[in-house]
Amino acid sequence: MATLIAGFLEETIQNNLKHMPTNPAIFCPVPLSRQRLITRGFNQSLEIARPINLPDGGILIPDLIWRLKNTLQQSSLHPDDRQRNVRGAFFTNPALAHQIQGQHLAVIDDVITTGTTLNAIAKLLKQAGAVRVTNFVFARTTWH
After folding, report:
1. pLDDT computed for residue 70 by the predictor
2. CA 107 to CA 26: how far, in whole Å?
3. Domain interval for residue 53
């Protein structure tokens, strides 16, 4: 299933790159907390990102971002509670943080609802020196 989703997302990435001043140099998946990774057994965002043929010069760095806080699932929360839920959850990997400086990064995720998680990650990456952060997401849900 991840390969099928990756194919659709790859097409979206290629179409969007035509409209960007620069291609992302680094692609990274939205990380799971250690507890959720153990429970689930895989990171769906990483599994989607792996088969994507990245643009020239683009590399996938699976562990660039760490999720140290085991947050509640965003889908279970009201939009007003989501920002509080992810506050302080994400960190850059200290051993790889130097690679962010001056780069255009792309974050890969499976589903977006309100964008709170992706906004928190984009803010983190920009604070670490990224000049641009682009999000690529397979599906969008709506909040009822």
Report:
1. 75
2. 9
3. 2-12+23-140
